[in-house]
Structure formats: C-alpha cells, structure tokens
Specification:
The complex is a heterodimer of chains A (271) and B (109).
Chain A (H helix, E strand, L loop, with lengths): L4 H31 L4 H10 L3 H11 L4 H12 L1 H13 L5 H7 L3 H7 L10 H26 L12 H17 L4 H17 L5 H14 L1 H7 L1 H11 L5 H5 L4 H9 L8
Chain B lengths: L3 H26 L7 H22 L12 H17 L2 H19 L1
Helix pairs in contact in B: 3-4
The chains are: A mainly alpha (271), B mainly alpha (109).
C-alpha cells in the first residue's frame, strides 16, 4: 500500500482534535502511574498491551496486589463496548488484509467514531486513511502517557474537564449522523437504551445490558429499518457496482439526501 | 516494595481481556470472505446507535440530583450542538465546548 502526503494530511486533520485530547489525557494517566511507582515505560507498555484509556485508568489501582482474574474481568466489563464497535467494522475492514488485525486491536472509541462515518476525504486512499487515523490516535495517547510519567510532575496546568472533549466529539458525530439520515430510530435507541440501563443498573453494570437491548432491538427491527432506509438501499446498489464493496461506497455517497434533511432538522437541538 | 512481575501480569491480563472485546467479534463473524448479511446490516445501523451509547457513557458519572446538577455538562453540550449546527466544523465545536466546560467546572461551579 502506498501512502501519499495527501493521505497523511487528511488523516492528520481528522485525528487532530483526538490527538490533542489524547496527549493531555495520556499525560494525566502517566502522572497517576508515576505517583503509584510506575515510570513512563510502564505507561507505554500499558498503552501497547491494553490501549484503552478507561481500562488503563482502572488498572492503576490493581497493579500492586490486585487479583489477576478479577482484573481481567473488570477490564472485560469496562471494555465491553468495543464488542459493539468491532461488530460494526467487520464489513468495512473485510478487505484490509493483514492490516485489519491492527485496525481492530487499536479500535478505540474515538477512532471508531471517526472511521465508522465512512467519510474518507476525496482523493484519499481509504485503507491508508484508516491505518493512519488509527495509528495517530494510538501513538498520541502513548506519547502523552510517556510525557506524563517523564515530566508530568513539573506541569502546573489544570486540565480538569478536558475529557469533555470526547463527549463533545461524539456529540458532533451524533448531530452529523442525525442530519445525514432520515430514519432516526437507531440514534434514539442508542440514547434511550443506554440512559435507561444507566438508571436501572448503575454506573458499573449498565453497558452490557444496554448493548444486548440495542442489538436485540436492531435485529428485531431489521426489516422495518431496511424498508425505511430507501437511501441506504440505493447506496447499496451503487456499492455493488464496485464489486460488492458496499460499505466503502455507501457512507461517502450521502448523495442528494444529505442536503434534503440538513435543512429541516433544527429540532436536533433538543437532544 | 512493588511487585513488578505481578504488575506486569495484571497489565497483561487486562490487555488480553480488552483485546478479546475487540477481536472476538471478528473471529466469530469475520472469518469467511463473505460477511453475513446480518453483520453488514448491523454495521450500517450500529454507528448511529453507538454514538448515543458513547455520549451517555461519557456522562455516566454525571448526576442531575447532586453536585452542580449537570449544569456544566448541559450548558457545554448545548453550545456544542448549536455551534455545530451553525458552523458544521468539528474542531471548532469541540474546542469551544471543551474550553467552556473547563471554565465552568474550574471557575464557575
């Protein structure tokens, strides 16, 4: 695979807000690790072996004296949302060859939010773009955590609240998706099912029940959703023209539909 | 005295568990060259559902009843949404919302 300057520039632009936040959050992680007696190289090791911010923050308190099985179970519970992401990238990554193993291994929330949109800029090699976005995101997290462990104690910048950048990022993707599609059922399902489960099951256990409910509902509603998604079907047809690479073509071809719905969606602001 | 071997094993165990959540679906559904129709369908609709999940996940520790009553989050989210509808620029909205949120939690509330 040939990577052009254009691919790098496009991936860099997409990753920029994530990279900035990851360096800052990673620094925070590196500082916490250092305070627990684990230097910058430990943070790097953890960023390679685990590479999930939430799991890594949880892991700190377990490093000295935690039960290994318990640690694995906790990691699984916290990381379970990745199951959801991976399922929805299988079709997209099917033709990525050996690269797909790296793409799946490093598929964090933020990379998923960027790459599940199928918005590879025009003239950019999609495979290179996917690889670079994933790589930029992971390396910025690891670099941040190294810096945190190395010089973190000299920093006086108060970064409280910086993690809101991720909430903001996901919200902009949500709004964009809302404007790009006619059928809002999947989006509303995501918000309401997760919110309900959070209220019912509490903050530690809500993810898995929420995912089960969402998967079951999406599967049960399949014929209705596919019927309503006329736009999706048109795109699927155009995808077949390119040798069945449905996923690759679909997202990009917002076609005329985007314009049509972008206008009459002021009500989004209620969310 | 820190037991570094134990720490390494903990990181390894948590790494394997995390990797499992990312790779298991691929091993189960993505082995054949032809991906099952159901998985392709889910791949199309799930990103829409997953963003809702991620937003709520990010806000899971926020309480409407305690502390600042979710006001910093509510205000910053409203600004993110409004500015995004206005400019359609991700970086602009993320930076604006985050700076505002940081000011709100560090200075105002």
């Amino acid at each position: 695979m040939k990577i052009t300057k254009r691919d790098v520039a496009a991936a860099f632009q997409t990753s920029l807000p994530i990279m900035v936040t990851f360096v800052v959050l990673g620094t925070g992680y590196g500082i916490v690790m250092e305070k627990h007696g684990f230097g910058p190289l430990w943070s790097v090791l953890s960023g390679i072996l685990i590479f999930s911010g939430t799991v890594q923050f949880v892991s700190v308190s377990m490093l000295s004296g935690g039960n290994i099985l318990m640690a694995a179970f906790t990691a699984f519970m916290v990381a379970a949302r990745h199951i959801f992401f991976s399922i929805s990238m299988i079709g997209r990554y099917q033709r990525e060859g050996k690269r797909k193993w790296y793409l799946f291994y490093a598929l964090c929330d933020e990379t998923y939010a960027m790459l599940s949109r199928d918005e590879t800029p025009e003239g950019v090699n999609e495979s290179a773009y996917r690889l670079l976005v994933t790589l930029f995101d992971q390396s910025s997290w690891i670099i941040g955590s190294f810096l945190g462990g190395w010089i973190g104690s000299f920093l006086t910048f108060d970064s409280t609240g910086i993690d809101f950048a991720m909430t903001a990022l996901f919200t902009t993707v949500f709004i964009q998706q809302w404007m790009d599609t006619k059928n809002h059922f999947p989006a509303i399902l995501g918000i309401t099912a997760t919110l309900l489960c959070r209220l019912i099951f509490g903050r530690d256990l809500f993810l898995i029940p929420a995912m089960i409910i969402m998967l079951a509902t999406l599967i049960a509603m399949r014929s209705r959703i596919e019927e309503e998604g006329k736009g999706v079907e048109t795109e699927a047809v155009c995808g077949e023209g390119r040798g069945g690479e449905i996923e690759e073509v679909c997202g990009q071809g917002h076609g005329g539909e985007t314009e049509e719905f972008a206008d009459n969606d002021g009500r989004t602001s209620k969310e | 005295m820190i037991d570094y071997t134990h720490a390494f094993l903990i990181i390894l165990a948590m790494g394997v568990a995390t990797l499992a959540t990312r790779i298991a679906p691929v091993l189960i559904f993505g082995r054949d060259r032809k991906v099952p129709d159901l998985i392709l369908y889910l791949g199309k609709v799930m990103p829409y559902t997953a963003m809702g999940l991620l937003i709520i996940y990010c806000l899971k520790d926020v309480s409407v009843l305690e502390g600042s009553h979710a006001l910093p989050e509510g205000i910053a989210l409203a600004v993110v949404i409004a500015s995004y509808i206005w400019k359609r620029n991700t970086i602009f909205s993320v930076v604006l919302g985050t700076v505002l949120y940081m000011v709100l939690v560090q200075v105002v509330f």
